[in-house]
Amino acid sequence: MPSLKDLKNRIASVKATQKITKAMKMVAAAKLRRAQEAAEAARPYSQRMAAVLANIAQAVGADDSAPALMTGTGKDDTHLLVVCTAERGLCGGFNSQIARFARDHVRKLLAQGKTVKIICVGKKGFDILRREFASLIIDRVDLREVKKIGFENADRIGHKVIELFERGEFDVCTLFYSEFKSVISQIPTAQQLIPASAGPVAAESDSASAIYEYEPDAGAILTDLIPRNISVQIFRALLENVAGEMGAKMSAMDNATRNAGEMINKLTLNYNRQRQAQITKELIEIISGAEAL
Amino acid sequence: MADSFNFELVSPERLLLSAQVTEVVIPATEGEMTVMANHAPTMTTVKPGVVTVKTADGKTERFAVFGGFADILPTGCTLLAESAVHVDELDRTVLENRIDEARAELEGAIDEKKTRVEQFIAELTRLGEIVIPA
User: Fold this and answer.
1) Among residues 194-213 of chain A, which lie with CB inside 8 Å of chain B?
2) Domain spans in chain B, listed from the N-terminal domain onward
């Protein structure tokens, strides 16, 4: 049985922890709002980009002039996985969810006899994947210093991926990130970057039917467009990730705050009961002492 | 009064402008072009330069863009810029940082890429001269 003093100390420490988790929750909520705004602001660009890309892809068709980034190398022996996670923990199962998803994918690929290479974006994913696939990780990108993710961060990763592709280091590139559905649900997602999967072209019949003039020409635009599209996809993934991370952190911290509250209640009850018991005991001692006289 | 059409200037970070305009001057790779309403459908790449927008209510706005491409339809025009800023918000240090970055890239570049980067630097320098009086 802990003494009164022990209980008092524990209550104080749990209270301090609760204050911290509460503050973290509020910070996460504010950041979440900003992250959501950023993700929303980036949406028009990627949507237009997809529409334009589908349009040109249709114009160029299955022509031989289509760049390799689009058609792929014709093999799928070597896979490059770009795994995007958060830089910080304390956000529930967010990081491990993505890492687990990627890990299952890697195992599947390895079982099929493919070669796998991994690029880790974010520290947490690196920490988890390193345990099992340390030899497969060829690079890691650190975004810890970055306060607000800008397009240039994504662009740099995009360039890295394209450079590797041009050197023939891999055949298929897949991007792993967490799609932000809502504050309480983030879904780990895999998206193929190279070869670029042709989106739903048929859906936009009105703009697709327009006969475009291309300057300089469709092939040149496509060569310019696809690397940019890769960067845009990565950028979008990073933004979704930030929003997801903050959402997960918010609910994790909310839970922690609530748990701390429950614990405080229990401890306080216990404390009061013991205090009462001690008072009663002292009273009995005094009374029986007085009676003896 | 000329017909107006919808013009959108989008960068990956945000939608900078979406407005009814009468005239847009775009620095296309093949030379500057002015887009007005009912333009033939055109798709073109854009080099670093200044986009001049004349809105339907007669105001003129200028944006500095760093590459991208434009999608022009008779009913509207979308400019997807790699990065874009309003001319008033652009300052010399930002531009110089970009030029320095490109120079660093030039170090390791060879052949075709080298020419491309050199051209990019030249365009940036010119952009600086236009936008910011020395």
Assistant:
1) 207, 210-213
2) 5-87, 91-131
Q: Is the same domain home to A267 and A177?
A: no
Window A:1-40, CB contacts with B under 8 Å: 38
| A42 and A115 share one domain | yes
Query: In chain A, which residues have their Cβ closer than 8 Å to the Cβ of B70?
Result: none
Structure confidence by residue, pLDDT tens digits, B78-94: 898 888 888 877 777 77
Q: Same domain for A84 and A131?
A: yes
Beta bridge partners of B91: none
Whether A151 sits inside 8 A of B30 (CB atoms) is: no
- Fold classification of B5-87 is ATP Synthase; domain 1 (2.60.15)
What's the total number of domains in chain A? 2
Asked if the model's pLDDT at residue A206 lies above 70, the reply is no
**A84 has catalytic annotation:** no
Q: How many CB atoms lie within 10 A of CB B99?
A: 17
Q: Are B2 and B14 in contact (CB under 8 A)?
A: no
Burial of residue B67 (CB within 10 Å: 0-12, 13-18, 19+) is buried
Split at pLDDT 50, 70, 90, the class of A201 is: very low
Give the pLDDT confidence of B15-38 residue by residue, as tens digits.
888 889 998 999 888 888 899 888
Rounded to the nearest 5 degrees, what angle is found at the Cα of A43, between the Cα atoms of B124 and A163? Answer: 55
Domain range enclosing A274: 4-22+253-292
Backbone angles phi, psi at B15, to 5 degrees: -90, 110
